[in-house]
Amino acid sequence: MSLKNALYAATALTLVSSGAMASENLVIATVNNGDMIRMQGLTQDFTDKTGHTVEWVTLEENVLRQRVTTDIAAKGGSFDIMTIGMYETPIWGANGWLVPLDDLSADYNADDILPAMRAGLSHDGTLYAAPFYGESSMIMYRKDLMEKAGLEMPDAPTWQFIREAAAAMTDRENDINGICLRGKAGWGEGGAFITVTANSFGARWFDEDWNAQFDQPEWKEALEFFVGMMNESGPNGYATNGFNENLNLFQQGKCGMWIDATVAASFVTNPNDSTVADQVGFALAPNSEGIEKRANWLWAWALAIPAGTQKADAAKEFIEWATSTDYIELVAANEGWANVPPGARTSLYENENYKDIPFAKMTLDSILAADPTDPTVDPVPYVGIQFVAIPEFAGIATEVSQEFSAVYAGQQTVEEALEKAQALTNDAMEAAGYR
Amino acid sequence: MATKHSRSAARLMMAPAVILLLGWMLVPLTMTLLFSFKQYLPLRGGDLGWVGFDNYIRFVSSSAFWPSVTATLIIVGGVLAITITLGVLLAILLNQPMWGQGVVRILVIAPFFVMPTVSALVWKNMFMDPTNGLLAHLWRFFGAEPVSWLSEASMTSIIMIVSWQWLPFATLILLTAIQSLDSEQLEAAEMDGAPPVKRFAFITLPHLSRAITIVLLIQTIFLLAIFAEIFVTTGGAFGTRTLTYLIFQRVLESQNVGLGSAGGVYAIILANIVAIFLMRIVGKNLDA
């Protein structure tokens, strides 16, 4: 080989190797909640370690869902990493739209991911998204108001107890509502809550042949109970309250109890944001007397890589960084252990520093009590607790929850809403070829 | 005067803009038409073939169709009635000589510069919230039970929010028209002993009819596609689901592009019927 050729070869080799090592700019779509915003603030740590830069597209939950769904379905290729949940992951994984995450590095320790989270973010045993944080739902209550009402909250209360306690805590003169719950239309808002409530009354969305079950007595019982309790002890206009509205009410001291996502625990116990931070107690989500299933869900906001991205390797590096134990320690060092992303890793709950956090144990117990593969009393053909993991569900459940919200607003009766829900669900399932 | 040569030069120079504009309209329109005859489900593998008029039949036979058309027409009608009535009154008021007229005019026009999403959020959280809203505090101050505006009076609330946004537009157009009214004519009528109501009915209002027509036409076209305010406030619940919102639900929430496209074609037809109807009834004013 002549010197000239050798030089060419060396130059080419240098170019190839530097290409492989090149730093990339990753575009990440994410949801605008506290933990994600915190991650954005810490991005520099990732850039320092890997050389890759990050561009954030931060969106409100509903908008994020629509953007990423449209982008991936139309192969738009706008993002290198997407923040998605337990509903989307198995469906998209099955369609081949996500890069499998079964080859993450040994340091990452994928076996440390909580089994329930791993199962919910996999399809056919392959992990398609890494959980950034995981959650279930639980009761958050005001210890002072409980005491004033002369009651004591058990660790695992029933709905009947919750209804009595809510009535006892309600103090309309002082603007205190016994209980605040989601009534806002939308499958991920009020739709999710009424579904888990129905599960805990023995109801289900579909029978094993995909027939809608809204004509069954369990749904009527659940809905009537919910409406009755909220009319007695809920806030005015609860039909338009979702997660954020209830969080505000609770932080302002206007709710005796609130049953919602376990991640809310760090917000209601943070004295900077909450006027009742030192008075909050926690309990498992309720069940109905004689029924084992509780009204708690399972959810994870997770990071996934759309198939077709040119930057899959860099994207994997980011996912490893954001969902690793090192990241948890980075947040703890900067903002304290109460603010680390919860519910994703087993090791967090074995960590001595985290054990003292007041809501840690109840969060873990709630997550462990939820099983997406067996969500209801009677058998069902679907996976998912507060949702049904089929592509048609988001559309159907949004319409059904709109009918329910109209009941909460006093615009129609429980019977009318259930009748409409039954008809529109069966219509959609027929059109989709299930029935 | 334009010569043959300059006319062809003008055509040549305008061609790129015209082609671009046509493409801008024709491409989405053609795609909507194409998809409306297909079973196109992005989450189930995409294009599943031609289905003829199935999507059209399913869209209109769905129980949500007629209520959505009714909701659309109620919102359009309500907002038009409010903005035109109040617009005329405000235009007359703002035309009176007063101290700080310029500032008052800017304040009246200001809502038009607020983005629909922002104004809907402000109304929802600061005014209409049944616990923390300004209106709730006002109601409580007078000893009344606060109203859950967005759920109990959802249609009224949305009409109020949208009217607030569109009132400046109507006022601005009508104010410009009123300023061109010959004051001598009004003075002559006054000297002849015509009372204020008659002066308004027989001189001011006829003079404003052309401006009112413009407001009616432009607002109708925009209001038929109203979306952001509903998305932010009620999410289509409580009977506020308009035709546009229903199409959005079919395409984005149900991920059924074919069905939604059929809805889109219906919306185009409806908008054109309304526009032609308006042109014929009130458009005559424009020729006068």
From TrEMBL, chain A:
GO cellular component, one term: periplasmic space
SUPFAM superfamilies per the UniProt record, alphabetical: Periplasmic binding protein-like II
Subcellular location: Periplasm
Keywords, alphabetical: Signal
Principal location class: periplasm
Annotated signal sequence range: 1-22
Transmembrane portions of the chain: none
UniProt record similarity statement: Belongs to the bacterial solute-binding protein 1 family.
Name this polypeptide is given: Extracellular solute-binding protein family 1
Organism listed in the record: Dinoroseobacter shibae (strain DSM 16493 / NCIMB 14021 / DFL 12)
Automatic annotation (TrEMBL), chain B:
Keywords for this protein: Cell membrane, Membrane, Transmembrane, Transmembrane helix, Transport
Cellular compartment(s): Cell membrane
Broad class of where this protein is predominantly found: membrane
Record-linked Pfam families: BPD_transp_1
Gene3D superfamilies per UniProt: MetI-like (1.10.3720.10)
Membrane topology of this protein: Multi-pass membrane protein
Keyword Cell membrane tagged: yes
Ranges for domain ABC transmembrane type-1: 69-278
Matches recorded under InterPro entries: ABC_transporter_permease, MetI-like, MetI-like_sf
Residues annotated as transmembrane: 12-37, 69-94, 106-123, 158-178, 214-238, 258-282
SUPFAM superfamilies xref list: MetI-like
GO biological process entries: transmembrane transport
GO terms for cellular component: plasma membrane
Family as reported in the entry's similarity comment: Belongs to the binding-protein-dependent transport system permease family.
Name this polypeptide is given: Binding-protein-dependent transport systems inner membrane component
Source organism of this protein record: Dinoroseobacter shibae (strain DSM 16493 / NCIMB 14021 / DFL 12)
Lineage: Bacteria, Pseudomonadati, Pseudomonadota, Alphaproteobacteria, Rhodobacterales
